[in-house]
């Protein structure tokens, strides 16, 4: 009689536990190829704050992961997401990024796919604006921080203990992470292994695992909701007329588009943006960045964490170094000498770790590589498309 009364309840609890605690490998198999096609260029924040999409993506050699920040949203016809539809080369760019995604944010993205990354090619776009005296701050980190990825990082053994401890120490420098209850405590245990008794650590690890599995279940549900939408305000459709252009012609047509869009301002900034945000406030921007040096920044150490992980997993990575808008930064109070210190430090760090670098900092004082004060424009994308194709085709 008692079993008849409680049997359905017990069965329900067992089923719920089975669903929540199903292995991630099974959850990944429940993500379809259509889900992945929708996610590849959706720019949906769930893609880069989740795990399943990125792990599933790396199972398919069709996708070339591209990590970056707000420049990925500038979806003009020369953007890799559009250009490689016009001129397919055997791969589909898979976009991972939005504004404020600095190296440490991407480290968590990469750490969640550490095993799947082995032997893969990736593209990583570096913005010189990351390398300020402050580097990544809570204002940019908190909205891009993923609890699911942080739990995965704390609980998994996919990277070396020494690197894991170093990253955990960096993460718990942020108060909003330390204040995250169980997550904050397990990360501090990784950073400082001997700070608490084993029993307290084990208890928190059990709680952490339960929370992590609930987050991965939510991740799975959200994956089926992703639509192949773009940021419509900045999206241009692929232009199939570009298919017949060689690289010289492509760059020239992109340059002509940039000239037309920037028209009459000396900073070569997209004219509607300049008219709306800068023209009538120009005086307040004079020397507004004069105190920035870009030579000393926590971002260099955060970038090194990314490089260490990629070396551990033998990832074939192309780093793209984007220039400042030199004329704008001259006006803002950061002279070229200071900018070149940042360019050299970035290049030296990438090359000394054995990675490929597409260095476009020679466009610092030349117009049209960027479309505004910091974001890649049509001509910039044309040069980057060429560097991506060369990188992808090289065995």
What this model shows, in words?
The protein has 395 residues and is an alpha/beta fold. The chain has a domain at 37-141 and 229-393: 3-Layer(aba) Sandwich (Rossmann fold). 51% of the residues lie in helices and 7% in strands. The chain has 19 helices and five strands. It has helices at residues 2-20, 24-29, 33-39, 45-49, 52-57, 80-86, 103-112, 138-141, 147-155, 161-171, 175-178, 182-191, 198-223, 247-262, 271-278, 298-312, 326-332, 336-352, 378-393; strands at 63-68, 92-97, 121-126, 316-321, 356-359. Strands 2-1-3-4-5 form a five-stranded parallel β-sheet, sandwiched between helices. Helix 10 (161-171) runs antiparallel to helix 16 (298-312) and helix 12 crosses helix 13 (198-223). The chain is globular, with a radius of gyration of 23 Å. The N and C termini lie far apart (69 Å). Residues 10-19 have low confidence and may be disordered. Keywords: Cell membrane, Membrane. Belongs to the DltD family. Pfam families: DltD. This is Protein DltD. InterPro entries: DltD, LTA_DltD.
């Amino acid at each position: 009689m008692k079993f008849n009364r409680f049997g359905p309840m017990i069965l329900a609890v067992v089923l719920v536990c089975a669903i929540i605690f199903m292995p991630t490998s099974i959850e990944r198999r429940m993500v379809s190829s259509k889900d992945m096609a929708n996610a590849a260029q959706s720019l949906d924040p769930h893609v880069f704050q989740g795990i399943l999409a990125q792990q599933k993506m790396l199972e398919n050699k069709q996708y070339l992961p591209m990590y970056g920040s707000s420049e990925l949203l500038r979806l003009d016809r020369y953007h890799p997401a559009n250009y490689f539809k016009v001129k397919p080369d055997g791969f589909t760019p898979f976009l991972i990024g939005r504004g404020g995604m600095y190296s440490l944010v991407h480290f968590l993205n990469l750490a969640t796919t550490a095993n799947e990354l082995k032997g893969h090619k990736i593209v990583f776009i570096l913005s010189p604006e990351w390398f300020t005296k402050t580097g990544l701050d809570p204002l940019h980190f908190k909205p891009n921080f993923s609890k699911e990825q942080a739990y995965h990082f704390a609980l998994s053994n996919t990277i070396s203990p020494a690197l894991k401890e170093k990253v955990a120490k960096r993460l718990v420098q942020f108060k909003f992470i330390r204040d995250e209850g169980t997550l904050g405590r397990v990360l501090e245990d990784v950073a400082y292994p001997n700070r608490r008794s084993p029993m307290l650590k084990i208890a928190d690890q059990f709680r952490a695992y339960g929370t992590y599995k609930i987050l991965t279940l939510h991740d799975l549900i959200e994956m089926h909701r992703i639509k192949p939408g773009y940021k419509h305000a900045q999206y241009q459709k692929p232009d199939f007329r570009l298919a017949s252009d060689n690289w010289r012609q492509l760059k020239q047509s992109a340059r002509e588009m940039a000239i037309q869009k920037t028209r009459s301002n000396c900073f070569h900034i997209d004219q509607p943006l300049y008219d709306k945000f800068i023209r009538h406030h120009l005086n307040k921007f004079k020397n507004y960045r004069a105190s920035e040096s870009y030579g000393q920044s926590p971002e260099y150490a955060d970038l090194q964490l990314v490089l260490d992980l990629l070396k551990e997993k033998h990832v074939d990575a192309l780093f793209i170094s984007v220039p400042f808008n030199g004329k704008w930064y001259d006006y803002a109070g950061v002279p070229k000498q200071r900018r070149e210190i940042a360019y050299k430090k970035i290049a030296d760090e990438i090359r000394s770790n054995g990675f490929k670098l597409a260095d476009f900092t020679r466009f610092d004082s030349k117009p049209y590589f960027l479309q505004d004060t910091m974001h890649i424009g049509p001509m910039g994308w044309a040069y980057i498309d060429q560097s991506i194709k060369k990188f992808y085709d090289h065995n």
